[in-house]
Structures are given as C-alpha cells and as structure tokens.
Amino acid sequence: MTTNPPAAGSPTPANGTMRAWVQDRYGGPEVVELDRVPVPVPGATDLLVRVRACGIHAGDVRLMRGDPYLVRLAFGIRRPRTATRGIDVAGTVVAVGSEVTGSRPGDEVVAEIGVGGGLAEYAIVPAARAVVRPADVPVQHAAALPVSGGTAWQALDAAHVASGSRVLVIGAAGGVGTYTVQLAAQRGAEVWALAGERALDLMTDIGAAHAFDYRRVQPGSPEIPAESFDAVIDIAGTVPLSALRGLLRDGGTVVLVSGAGGKILGPMGRMLKAVFLSRRRRRIRSLAATAKPEILAQLLELTAQGTIRPVIERTYPFHAARDALAHVDAGHAVGKVVVTVE
Ligand SMILES: NC(=O)c1ccc[n+]([C@@H]2O[C@H](COP(=O)([O-])OP(=O)(O)OC[C@H]3O[C@@H](n4cnc5c(N)ncnc54)[C@H](OP(=O)(O)O)[C@@H]3O)[C@@H](O)[C@H]2O)c1
User: Fold this and answer.
1) Which of its termini does the chain have fewer beta carbons within 10 Å around, N or C?
2) What are the sequence ranges of the domains in the chain?
3) Which residue's CA lies nearest to atom 10 of ligand 1?
4) Is the dihedral of CA 173, 179, 180, 184 positive or negative?
5) Closest CA relative to residue 88, chosen from 175, 213, 191, 188
6) Secondary structure of 53-77 in the HEC alphabet?
7) Is 148-286 assigned to CATH 3.40.50.300?
8) Residue 209 gets which letter from DSSP?
C-alpha cells in the first residue's frame, strides 16, 4: 500500500525495526518480553504513530492472560494474534495511509486502538479513531483517558445519570471508577463511592459526597441503605445481583461493568443471569463499552479545562512496561497506570 511521506524532521525508524513488548503465549506478566520487531505498515485508512505514552488497564491483562478462556475464541486459541498489549495510545503521527485526509505527520493524537499494539515505539492507529490531543493535556494524561474514561461515560449514559441523580459507584478507586465518580459529579449527580480504605480521601477529593471502605461496609447496610439509588454502577462485580437490584429506587438502573466469574465464561455468566433478574422498574443492564472517538474528544476537552483530572497512580518507563502490567494485574491500582515511551 502507499503511504504519504513522513513530515520533514519526523522521527522515523532507522532500519525498519522497533522495540516492542511481545508475548508468544498466554500467561502472567512473565510471558511478556522486550523484543525488536518490524515497524508496522499502516493500511490505506491508518496512521503510523510514534507512541509517547500508553495507558494500561484491566482489559490489557485479561488479554495477556487469555482470561476467561472465552477471550481466546475471539483473540487467538493458543496465543493472542496481536502479540503486543496496549490499547490506549498517545503519540505523534509519522506517516498516514493513502486515503487519510484528516491527519498529517506531526499531529499529536490520542486513540483507543483495538486489541493491542501500544506497548511499542510505533503503533497503527485507525485514522477514524484518532483524536487530536489539546496542547495543554500532557501525553500521560491523554493516554490514561480512552478505555477507562470512555467506559465510565458509557456506563453513566446507560444508567441515565443526570443532575440530581443519586449514584452508587462500586469499585470507585480503579481506572474506570475514578472517572465514573468525576463524570457523575460533573453531571450534577450525588455520588456515593465504595472503594478501598486507602482511597477514601481521594474519593471525596474527586467529587464523591460519601465514601465507604468496601471491606467494612456492605451495600444494603444502614450506611448504604436499600431502595436509595437512582443508579448503581458496579465496576467491582462482587456484590450479588439481587442485592444490587435491592439498592434501587423505583425506576432505577444497575449497570454491570464487570463481574467475578469462572475461568471459562468470566463475567459473562453474571451478565446472562442479570437478564433474568432485571425488572421493568428496577433494571439491570450489562455494559460492553466500545471505542467512541466523540466521547474521547469530550474527555480531552474536560481534562484541558480542568473539569476532570486523570488520577495516575504510577508512571513507568518503557523498559519497565512488564512491571506496569504486573501492577494492574495485581488488581489494586488506585486510578491509572501509564507507560511512557522515551
Ligand atoms: N464492560 C466493559 O466494557 C468494561 C470496560 C473496561 C473495563 N471493564 C472491566 O472493569 C473492571 C474494572 O476495571 P478497572 O480498570 O477499573 O480495574 P482496576 O483499576 O484494576 O481496579 C482496581 C481497584 O478496584 C478496587 N476494588 C477491588 N475489589 C473491590 C471491591 N469488591 N469493591 C470496591 N473496590 C474494589 C481495588 O481496591 P483495593 O486495592 O483496596 O482492593 C483497586 O483500587 C475490570 O474487570 C475490567 O475488565 C469492563
């Protein structure tokens, strides 16, 4: 295919190869190795981006592990067909496909790129997914936005959260949760947060009216009473579905973002059960968030204005990307984890 030439002064790969973190089998962070691989060639509607930062999230480690097994049906039975993890990318366009008209070399962009490819020096970004990064949003912040921010936004939409809604966010301290709390507060909702003890002060800092330690306070207890919420956003996935439904006021909605489950189906089992437990006046809906560049553009704008702020717990240099995956894999991140590609 034909690509338009890189802009003068663009950093281009010297010998057609680049460094990338790759895996040739499913497993924990130990299966991911730093290697030298060919620089990918953009298709006619793609951009080639010099990666400057890559956000890591729970979905990356699910793909790394092939967990649940259902994932492997879609992404590769023996090993992931895309060997490099990393979906959230911020970087500089260095070449564009022959049919691309809206981007050019030198543009600073952010994107959610599909199943992987971001933990590398260069990545392919479908042009339709690329959003221009405002100059006053740092690359680390931009790379922390796409999947987690987009999921939070879509969860709040699915629960019809608006000004005056009372919302309970379960799993409020993680990557998705820290955006859910902020975006719900920004919509004018009254936000209640269930999070780990060390994140409780953060919860009130970012807009929660009430914050509780999930290890001490159970939904349905006097602190978090039944029949009190217009929306429950369940990101942790451990509270029984009937208890979640019992938290709702008449007309309310539970949105399931995740769910504990077995090795084969993972959260799918819980999501199927939700169909049977949902009621007309107390709905339970499962969310499968998708890449929405128009939402990413609004998230970048809100970040540029200072209305929301990506909570970044740790930033890792590229050579330590395996440690970033391991930290997210452990399941105790507070906010986001970002790898910078120097
Ligand atoms: N449906 C979709 O489209 C979609 C999209 C994106 C992500 N997801 C899923 O959403 C889930 C969360 O993703 P994430 O990136 O936010 O995860 P994460 O960043 O890894 O979340 C970690 C945080 O969750 C807290 N936590 C763990 N168990 C909890 C519980 N029972 N109650 C309250 N807080 C708890 C941890 O606190 P402690 O350290 O104190 O335990 C930690 O702060 C993942 O399963 C992911 O696959 C789904």
Assistant:
1) C
2) 3-144+310-340, 148-286
3) 258
4) positive
5) 175
6) EEEECHHHHHHHHCCCCHHHHHHCC
7) no
8) S
Neighbours of 61 (CB within 10 A): 20
CATH label, 3-144+310-340, candidates 3.90.1330.10, 3.40.50.2000, 3.90.180.10, 3.60.10.10: 3.90.180.10
Give per-residue pLDDT as tens, 54-107.
Answer: 999 999 999 999 999 988 999 999 999 999 999 999 999 999 999 999 999 999
User: Does residue 332's CB lie within 6 angstroms of at least one atom of ligand 1?
Assistant: yes
Maximum distance among all alpha carbons in the chain?
65
Residue 214 in contact with ligand 1 by CB distance below 6 A: yes
Closest of 185, 180, 182 to residue 162, by C-alpha: 185
Nearest alpha carbon, ligand 1 atom 26: 171
Beta strands in 1-103, from DSSP E residues, in sequence order: 3-4, 17-23, 32-38, 46-56, 88-97
Is the distance from the beta carbon of residue 196 to the nearest atom of ligand 1 less than 6 Å? yes
Number of Cβ atoms within 10 Å of the Cβ of 317: 12
CA dihedral 171, 155, 138, 199 (to 10 degrees): -20
Pairing of strands 32-38, 46-56: unpaired
Specify which residues 229 forms β-bridges with: 248
pLDDT band at 5 (very low <50, low <70, confident <90, very high): very low
- CA dist 197 → 172, 214, 215, 216 (Å): 11, 8, 8, 9
Mutate to test the pocket of ligand 1, among 153, 203, 214 (most ligand atoms within 8 A of CB): 214
